[in-house]
Specification:
By secondary structure, the protein is an alpha+beta fold. The chain folds into two domains: about 180 residues, no CATH class; about 100 residues, Chitinase A, domain 3 (Roll), CATH 3.10.50. The strands form two sheets. Strands 2-1-9-3-4 form a five-stranded antiparallel β-sheet. A four-stranded antiparallel β-sheet has the order 6-5-8-7, with helices on both faces. The longest helix has 26 residues.
Length: about 350
């Protein structure tokens, strides 16, 4: 981030796209004038984004969120050691404290732009920190934020604002021409609209320390299934004899909620998709438990038709247009920073 030096106490900055350049345009903010009385009236303001005053508490939340990322960057780029001198040490012209502050400032500009759009679309009355904080306190028990820290609560609430603003935007947006929708479909149909193969599989949870027997027992199980035995009957038999827990899974277009209910289920599904018909995985240990996956059937799914996909495509393109509006308005935000305060603020 390049900065051109401005005047004494005030910087006027224009954000040229995030995370883009911050360029100081004028040293004193008064719409081009520099009368002492007007400057004095702004002396208590540390930071303002498009006319919205940002208190130090709000900026510090964004700054503290940059702590780990900045430390990791300097560790990777310069093998910098994190110690009591880290934040005030220059590394090849880069200063950790300055980098963290500039990145925090860039993120805050985008967040305030999104909040201003939420005001514009009638989602919230004001984008000031006091109003946002009051709303968070009112709604905290609605989304289980009691265990979160202040910045996490702030960003959870902010995410809700963005979703609501985006939905209001879509209600007012002009419909996208079908020719544009179809063009998107043709460009993306093979990698975005091909449904995942339908895979029928058994997920077998092995008894503790039974990896040796699994290699002998599982083939008998597969033979019984090939011979027409019902899976429900085999579940009881193999649980009573070997302690195996067998689950019958349907992945793909017919899968249920259980197949996407946890990281474990996601990993098991990924393993199943790596098998061909009749193939059995080696025992896989996940979080201290061993599993074997058996692929029973596999059918290649088709590509969704344009008519099936076009509503989804329009939603995606409207999302993109909303985010483009955020980007455009972020690039036009005018920011005023008290230079003395900005230089003195330190990472906690």
């Amino acid at each position: 981030m390049k900065v051109k030096k401005g005047g004494r106490n005030w910087k006027r900055l224009t954000m040229l796209g995030l995370p883009s350049l911050v360029i100081i345009m004028i040293g004193i903010w008064l719409g081009g004038t520099s009368t002492e009385s007007a400057a004095t009236s702004r002396s208590s303001v540390l930071l303002a984004i498009n006319g919205i005053e940002i208190p130090e508490e709000e900026f510090r939340m964004f700054l503290q969120d940059e702590k780990a990322t900045t430390a990791n960057y300097f560790s990777q780029a310069y093998a910098a050691e994190y110690n009591e001198h880290f934040w005030d040490t220059d590394f090849d012209g880069e200063n950790p404290a300055q980098v963290a502050k500039e990145n925090a400032l860039s993120k805050l500009v985008q967040v305030k732009t999104e909040q201003q759009l939420a005001v514009q679309y009638g989602v919230i009355r004001s984008a000031t920190y006091d109003h946002i904080k009051n709303q968070i306190n009112k709604e905290e028990n609605k989304y289980g934020a009691e265990s979160l820290d202040g910045f996490q609560k702030y960003m959870v609430y902010h995410s809700k604002l963005v979703v609501a603003a985006k939905n209001k935007y879509k209600l007012k947006a002009v419909s996208i021409p079908e020719t544009e929708l179809r063009q998107y479909y043709e460009l993306n149909k093979e990698n975005r609209f091909k449904l995942p193969d339908r895979v029928e599989a058994l997920v077998i949870t092995l008894a503790e320390h039974d990896l040796e027997n699994a290699g002998e027992v599982i083939p008998y199980l597969i033979d019984e299934i090939s011979g027409g035995a019902k899976v429900d009957e085999l579940k009881k038999k193999y649980f009573s004899q070997y302690g195996y827990v067998i689950k019958h899974k349907q992945y793909g277009s017919s899968e249920g909620k259980d197949e996407n209910s946890s990281d474990l289920e996601d990993q098991l599904k990924e393993l199943a998709y790596g098998l061909t018909i009749g193939e059995t995985s080696v025992p896989i240990e996940i979080s201290g438990q061993s599993y074997v996956i058996v692929c029973l059937e596999r059918d290649e799914e088709k590509v969704s038709s344009f008519d099936e996909a076009k509503l989804w495509i329009e939603d995606v393109l409207q999302d993109e247009r909303f985010m483009q509006q955020v980007e455009n308005e972020s690039s036009n935000q005018v920011m005023y920073v008290n230079e003395e305060w900005f230089n003195q603020i330190r990472m906690n």
